[in-house]
Amino acid sequence: MLASGGPDAVRVEVLAKRLGVTKGGFYGSFADRDALLEAMLDTWERESTDEVLARVEREGGDPRTRIRRAGALTFSNHRLLPIDLAVRDWARRDEAVAARLRRVDNRRMGLLRETIGTFCADPDEVEARSLIAFCVAIGEHFLVADHGDRTRAEVLTRVTALILDA
C-alpha cells in the first residue's frame, strides 16, 4: 500500500479487511495509525539497510562486487525499490521521515565511500564517485530518456564501469 499510494493510502480499515481481522483486532497490534506507519518505516529500514549491509558483508567479495551487490539488493529488488521510492516521496512532506531517510542514505553512502576508497585514493573523488553512484541508482528509475542505439542496461553498465574503474 505504501509503495503504490504513499502514506495516505495506508488505511487501517483496508488493512484490517485485507488481513481478515476486525478494526478492533488490528488495533490490538498497533496503538494507532501512526504506530503502524512507524512499524512500516522500521521494517523498511531494517530490510533495505541492515539486512542488505549484513548480506553484503557476509557474502564478501572485492569492493566492486560488494558495491554491485548492495545496489542490486536495494535498487533492483521488485519489493524494496517501490517502497524506497515511496519513502523518498513521503520524506519530502514529513521531517521525521526525512530524518530517517537521511540516516539510511548516510549508511548507504558510508558503504560506497568505504568500498570506493579501497581503489581510489583521492577523498574528493571518492565522495564524487559515491554521490554519482547513489544518484544514478535512485535517479535512473525516474528517467525516461532514450539512449540512441544503446539500451538503458548498456548505458548503466558503462556508468558503473566509469564509477568503479572497471
Automatic annotation (TrEMBL):
DNA-binding positions: 11-30
UniProt entry keywords in alphabetical sequence: DNA-binding
HTH tetR-type domain mapped to chain residues: 1-48
GO molecular function, one term: DNA binding
Tree of life domain: Bacteria
Entry annotated with the keyword DNA-binding: yes
InterPro entries per the UniProt record, alphabetical: Homeodomain-like_sf (IPR009057), HTH_TetR (IPR001647)
Listed name of the protein: TetR family transcriptional regulator
Taxonomic source organism: Virgisporangium ochraceum
